[in-house]
Amino acid sequence: MADRGDPPGDLAKALGHRFAKPELLAEALTHPSATKRRGPGPHGYERLEFLGDRVLGVIVAELLWHRFPEADEGELTRRHVSLVRRETLTKVATTLGLGAHLNAAGDDSMRANPGVLADLCEAVIAALYIDGGLEAARRFVERNWGGRLLAAAAQPPSDPKTALQEWAQARGPDLPAYQVVSREGPPHSPVFVIAVAVGGKTGTGTAGTKRAAEQAAASDLLGKLAV
Active site residue: 27, 49, 119, 122, which one? Predict the structure, then answer.
């Protein structure tokens, strides 16, 4: 394992970028547990992970916009959720062998932890973005998500409620919570307004059936979460 200030050259080569500031890659590979144990040095990948999540979201959204010119917002959103969810990030990190380069306190089981691997992948994207700009991050995403983008073209995206459920399950214990805001109109022609909340955001939908309003609310919220 390389020292914290000296990121492994083989990994930098695999990422397709020569870092002007190698300490960025070192920080992207550093779990917060290591910084608490060792004191001064990289502060851990949490801040980079935050940025990498947003950078990945923008790049994938752009790729989808070009790849599916006939798709509406709802379909693009569902495809986006599938491509940026934690399971996809974990697969990319595993393919690149990021776990082997993790700098962390504790046992080696952390190197195979799906959540840690997904966080590492997002942190690496942020490191590429800061060091080499958007083009460096885009090259990485295009190389590692290109095949998945093509595979997504052959598979119809899931409905909004399922997509939202998958998004929530990939990020934590909280699941989407649906609530009837109002029900108006005569019995033979009701109008439902449904709200759904997860991830600190809320979506709303209006339709003639409760199920359709839930789908509309999920689609609305997915659009907000994809930003």
Answer: 122
Helices (H), ranges, the chain: 9-14, 22-28, 32-38, 46-67, 73-84, 86-96, 114-154, 160-169, 210-225
- Whole-prediction pTM value? 0.69
Query: How far is the C-alpha of 120 from the C-alpha of 93, rounded, in Å?
Result: 7
122 is catalytic: yes
Q: 206 has which bridge partners?
A: 193
Domains of the chain: residue spans and CATH: 9-154 (1.10.1520.10), 160-225 (3.30.160.20)
CA dist 105 and 38 (Å) reads: 9
- Among the listed residues 53, 119, 131, 220, the single catalytic one is 53
CA-based torsion, 95, 100, 101, 103: positive or negative: positive
Token code pair at residue 200: 């600190």
Listed residue (105, 131, 132, 127) closest to 116, CA to CA: 105
Q: Active-site residue 70, yes or no?
A: no
- Mean pLDDT value of segment 132-138: 96
pLDDT at res. 222: 83
Tens of pLDDT, residues 28-85:
999 888 876 544 555 689 999 999 999 999 999 999 999 889 888 777 887 888 888 8
